[in-house]
C-alpha cells in the first residue's frame, strides 16, 4: 500500500462550514471512496484554511480515476468546489498538490 499526502487551500471564511460538511459525509460517497481503493483517508485543517490530506492506496491515480467514474463524486466535487482557492477551474479532487515522502518510521525500522 502506498501513502500519499497532499495540500489544498480552503477559504478561511468558509472553513467552519467545510468542517461541518465533512462531519457527515454522504454514506454513498464514503462507500464509493472505499470501493475505489481509498484507505485510511484523513483530512487535517489549519486555522488559515491550509488543508492537509493523507490517503493510502495501491495506486492513487487509479483510485482517483475510479472515483471520477461515479455519479456521487461528481455531485460531491460540485458541492465542495466553492470552498477552495487556487483550483483554476479544477474540481477539488483534481487540484491536489502531492507532497514528496521524506521519512517513514516503519519503513526505516523494517530496513534495519
Automatic annotation (TrEMBL):
Highest taxon listed in the record's lineage: Bacteria
One Gene Ontology term of the molecular function aspect: L-rhamnose mutarotase activity
Family annotation (SUPFAM superfamilies): Dimeric alpha+beta barrel
Keyword field contains Isomerase: yes
Gene3D superfamilies tied to this protein: 3.30.70.100
Enzyme Commission identifier(s): 5.1.3.32
Isomerase keyword on record: yes
Keyword list, A-Z: Isomerase
A Pfam family: rhaM
Main EC class the enzyme belongs to: isomerase
Name by which UniProt lists this protein: L-rhamnose mutarotase
Source organism per UniProt: Kineosporia succinea
Amino acid at each position: 500500500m502506498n501513502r500519499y499526502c497532499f495540500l489544498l487551500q480552503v477559504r478561511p471564511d468558509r472553513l467552519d462550514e467545510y468542517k461541518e460538511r465533512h462531519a457527515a459525509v454522504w454514506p454513498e460517497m464514503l462507500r464509493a471512496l472505499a470501493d475505489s481503493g481509498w484507505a485510511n483517508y484523513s483530512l487535517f485543517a489549519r486555522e488559515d484554511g491550509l488543508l492537509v490530506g493523507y490517503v493510502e492506496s495501491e495506486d492513487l491515480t487509479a483510485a482517483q480515476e475510479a472515483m471520477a467514474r461515479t455519479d456521487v463524486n461528481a455531485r460531491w466535487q460540485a458541492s465542495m468546489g466553492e470552498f477552495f482557492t487556487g483550483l483554476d477551474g479544477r474540481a477539488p479532487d483534481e487540484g491536489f498538490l502531492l507532497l514528496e515522502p521524506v521519512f517513514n518510521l516503519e519503513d526505516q525500522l523494517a530496513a534495519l
